[in-house]
Specification:
Layout lengths: L4 E2 L10 E6 L5 E5 L20 E4 L9 H8 L5 H4 L6 H15 L4 H12 L4 H11 L9
Helix pairs in contact: 3-4
């Protein structure tokens, strides 16, 4: 995704930046405009000039206390409740998916692939062999 910022001269210090997607040329861009002028200004794609654009809503973060974050982990922070999880691929996949969701981080396609396989019941040893065969995450390519 290519993102550029359009900063009109009369709004030199305007905030915030709004993300848009051009439905004609399929490129993303950021447009900075004041709250007062939002909804009134015509937004044009800086690449093709089209006004056929859609507002994109970016990710937001919500601050939470440590106790709130720990409560969200629920049963997964109790070692007695996770005892033997290594023998239950579906429970392990469920735990990993919840942990990923709770952190709010995108852990990449390799993580998603592993969790999908665990949730389908595949054991971790099979997954590890399958991923090494696919060379996921390996930056070197065979000629």
């Amino acid at each position: 995704m290519i993102i550029i910022e359009i900063l009109p001269k009369d709004l030199e210090f305007a905030m915030p930046g709004y993300e848009f997607y051009c439905d004609k040329c399929h490129k993303s861009f950021t447009f900075r405009i004041s709250y007062k002028d939002y909804g009134k200004a015509a937004i044009q794609c800086p690449y093709c000039g089209s006004t056929d654009v859609s507002r994109r809503i970016g990710k937001i973060r919500i601050g939470r206390s440590e106790s709130s974050r720990l409560n969200a982990w629920g049963e997964w922070i109790d070692p007695n409740k996770t005892n033997g999880i290594e023998d239950d691929p579906q429970a392990m996949g469920d735990m990993m998916r919840k942990m990923s969701t709770e952190t709010g981080e995108d852990l990449g396609p390799e993580f998603d692939e592993v969790v999908d396989r665990l949730e389908s019941g595949q054991n971790p040893d099979e997954i590890e062999r399958g991923l090494s065969d696919m060379k996921i995450g390996d930056s070197e390519q065979d000629p």
